[in-house]
Amino acid sequence: MKRLAHISDLHFGRINPQVVDGLLRDLTIQNPDLIVVSGDLVQRAKPSHFAAAREFLQSLPFPHLVVPGNHDIPVYNLLKRFTDPFRLYRRYITADLSPFHVDDQIAVLGINTARAVILDFSAGRLNRTQIARIRDVFDPLPNHLFKVLFTHHPFLPPPDAPDTRLVGRRRLALPVLERCGVDLLLAGHLHMAYSGDIARSHPQAARSILVAQASTATSTRLRGEANGYNLIAIDPPCVSFQVRAWDGHGFTDGPLSDWRKDGDRWSLLGSDDATPPT
């Protein structure tokens, strides 16, 4: 079995320091094999914000993979935004915008969906080169590996908001995800925690793919949910998603959902739909 901690939308520059300290304590207790950080490390792409984010990442006691989000791109400095949008991210966080981890049980790939040159730069999308990378990375891997793709922008809308904008060119990517056997999609951006099957909003899907969205881990920019992150237990053919939610003093168990794969389909075995504390 492998345990992933999925954290997202840290937003250094607008964080709750008590929550940051609590998150580090809880991650140490939970002892995940790998931490996945799905973007928006900072509130504004300023050196001081990135320096704080780097200090946090360096304090993580476990291996971690990171991709940027739209907040990691300059907003007001248009010259930097259009000429070198990820300069500070590369300088302070990592030069690798598509990190990859593989071991004897799991394969995890990150793809950068943040874009600086579209009209609404808060939106995200994939390009054909990135879709080809997904294929080239996952296709040669053996079938027994559990394959995880993580991005900042979501593939699946919240259950109560089906019209939410999703990552662009997802329909172009979906057949590739299916063919190369991706099992799980992780993302953030919406500051909402939920999980489900990609087939729920993509009826053309030939096989089901699990999705887990993470709320904001440390930011004060809450959207009706407490700060939280996902603790994911991968024990094929079963996967469980446990939300760890901030209760004002520490991170505690929030909603839990358990899934089992039979053939090409994931089935929900049980779910605790309790709302995390706010």
Automatic annotation (TrEMBL):
Pfam families found in the cross-reference section: Metallophos
Protein origin, superkingdom: Bacteria
Entry keywords, A to Z: Hydrolase, Iron, Metal-binding
Keyword Translocase set for record: no
Sample GO molecular function, one term: metal ion binding
Annotated ranges, domain Calcineurin-like phosphoesterase: 3-192
Keyword Metal-binding: yes
Listed Gene3D superfamilies: 3.60.21.10
Family under the similarity heading: Belongs to the cyclic nucleotide phosphodiesterase class-III family.
Protein's name in the database: Metallophosphoesterase
